[in-house]
Design brief:
Radius of gyration: 19 Å
Number of strands: 0
Order of helices and strands: HHHHHHHHH
Oligomer: single chain
Length: 282
Amino acid sequence: METVAPAVDLVLGASACCLACVFTNPLEVVKTRLQLQGELQAPGTYPRHYRGFVASVAAVAREDGLCGLQKGLAAGLLYQGLMNGVRFYCYSLACQAGVTQQPGGTVVAGAVAGALGAFVGSPAYLSILGAMETIWRQQGLAGLWRGVGGAVPRVMVGSAAQLATFASSKAWVQEQQWLPEDSWLVALAGGMISSVAVVAVMTPFDVVSTRLYNQPVDGAGRGRLYRGLADCLVKTWRLEGPLALYKGLGPAYLRLGPHTILSMLFWDELRKLAGRSKHQGT
């Protein structure tokens, strides 16, 4: 993998993930609606407006028009750029310091970078939900980090799985010599393998994070439904069953999977271009 300066990785990582977001935002819209459907209600006791991916896409398009499938795109780009810029910058610093060369170092570096990115990007995530202005007015600056307790673990595990499995799966694909070593198809294959791991570990945290951010709050800014990450996990498991933590799994993969594949592919290719430009300039 090409070596670039952390500041350059900040720009490249943010750009790659924003490009991926343009393609995957409609899937994020559908996934969020599925995850909020039937919140804290026993299965079978509530009407299901969204049933499966295709039917859910049709329902959103019918209710909000085709433009409804790109709801929150501007806010999504802000969140992806901010969160992933910080994430890839921190990961690049860890690579530069040799952390990723140690056993388990890629996992640790990915997790720490993800946690920092999620914390910095938390206010931008609220803008995706259309809540930033209201929260700022009612709860002040501290309210912009409401739900960060669910976002940080979610992005931590997702980032660790994504960066670690992408690096190892890309190296494995290169070892098999199925594809030309410098081909973009190597990064594509690595991203496809990585996407499965990301969705498997991230979906339960994604469900919890979505609910923590969307729950109503009292006058003091405390959530009315959940006290935090653990409380949300327990209540969801107890009232809706363990499978509720994988609500929207199909759309979750159809969104997170392509987003991981495209993000890793774009990031890898942009790093190659940056490396070539650097070599040509010397």
